[in-house]
Design goal:
Bound molecules: zinc ion
Distance between the termini: 23 Å
Strand order of the largest sheet: 5-4-2-1-7-10-9-8
CATH superfamily: Class II aldolase/adducin N-terminal domain
Shape: globular
CATH topology: L-fuculose-1-phosphate Aldolase
Order of helices and strands: HEEEEEEHEHEHEEHHH
Number of domains: 1
Number of helices: 7
Strand content: 15-25%
Largest sheet: 8 strands, mixed
Helix content: 25-40%
Radius of gyration: 19 Å
Structural class: alpha+beta
Number of strands: 10
CATH class: Alpha Beta
Length: 260
């Protein structure tokens, strides 16, 4: 049981982080969900549910989390709560993409707006540049994802991309773990916000970071390979860097430990 309890805690923390970073606040505070496959039992996953006394992402507790199978059926969790309404988005992606370990869906404002404007997101800053290097897949419906057919439609639209837009509805991101799927969503929204600024300034044909720059950035040496860092401690680098995720996790862990 210890392992499933650990997964529930990690998933609750990830759901709280979605709100903490602004992806589920205000009118969106109860909308969105992060999920993670149960290690060692890939036919099951843990996700935020529905039906709590106060249904808000920043209040999620580990015991609130729901265990589901790959058909989206609830197989564990508190008796008075159900799986999230759009659970088929998670189950269908897990079913179709065995390599995916974590799924995030929410309604980020800028990404949703840009999907309606049908403005292609182009790399506008380093954070998340690789996500939008190629045109993002778009699921061309704003309806909720309720049926198996709906879920399969999203999974098919996603393909092997780590992110897709749901037109007029929100976005979906995936990852090998909760950090990747949540940070992909945060980076996607950062790119969408920067694209909106550029769209307002210059119109739909505004430039993005040139492809040659992105290639150049990908081919840079690692920090550990640099002469002036040789002999130093191993430090994680990159756009996510692990720092932001660890900071968010630290803050939310403090909340949970304090009984909040
Ligand atoms: Zn939704």
């Amino acid at each position: 049981m210890a392992e499933i309890d650990d997964v529930k805690r990690d998933v609750a923390i990830a759901n709280r982080i979605l709100s903490h970073v602004g992806l589920a606040t205000g009118v969106l505070v109860s909308l969105g969900h992060a999920s993670f496959r149960v290690p060692g039992d890939p036919e099951l996953f843990v996700v935020k549910g529905r039906g709590y006394d106060i249904d808000a992402l920043p209040l999620m507790q580990p015991d609130d989390m729901i265990v589901c199978d790959l058909e989206g059926r609830k197989v564990g969790g508190p008796p008075n709560a159900t799986q999230c309404f759009e659970v088929k988005m998670h189950s269908a992606v897990f079913k179709n993409h065995p390599e995916v370990q974590s799924v995030v869906h929410c309604h980020p404002r800028y990404a949703t707006m840009m999907s309606v404007l049908q403005a292609r997101l182009v790399p506008m800053c380093n954070e998340g540049a690789q996500l939008v290097r190629k045109p993002l897949p778009v699921y061309p419906h704003s309806k909720l994802i309720l049926t198996e057919e709906d879920g399969q439609g999203v999974a098919t639209a996603l393909g092997d991309s780590p992110a897709a837009l749901l037109r007029g509805h929100g976005a979906i991101t995936t990852g090998q773990n909760l950090e990747q799927s949540v940070m992909n969503m945060l980076h996607l929204e950062e790119q969408a916000r920067m694209n909106w600024y550029a769209f307002c300034a210059m119109g739909p044909d505004h430039p993005g970071i040139p492809e040659a720059d992105l290639v150049e950035a990908r081919n840079q040496p690692t920090i550990a390979e640099l002469d002036h860092f040789v002999g130093g401690p191993a430090i994680r680098g990159g756009a996510g860097g692990g720092g932001a995720w660890r900071y968010f996790t630290h803050l939310i862990t403090q909340e949970l430990d304090a009984g909040r």
